[in-house]
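Q: What would this chain look like folded?
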Amino acid sequence: MTTSQNAVEFGKTVETIPNGSGAAAILAAGIGCAAIGVLAFASELSPGLRGLLNFYNPVGALPGKTTVTIIVWLIAWYGLSRIWQRENG
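A: My prediction, written as C-alpha cells:
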C-alpha cells in the first residue's frame, strides 16, 4: 500500500465527522483579524471613531478596538457554525 491509497477496503462505507464547525472557527478567526485591522486603520483616520472607541482614557482606543473585534469574532463564529453545523468539506 502506498501513501496515496486509502486503508479502507472496497465496498465498505466510511463514517465521516462533520467538519463545518471547524471551518467556521477558522474563517471566524480570519474575520476577527480583518476586523481589528480595519478598526485600527479607521480609528487612526477618523477622530470621531477614535473617540467612540476610547473606553479608558489612559490607554486610548485600544480597549474599544479589541472589544469590538472580539464581539465581531464571536458573532461570526456563532453564525457560521450554525450555518455549517452539519457540512462536510
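Confidence is low (pLDDT under 50) at residues 1-5.
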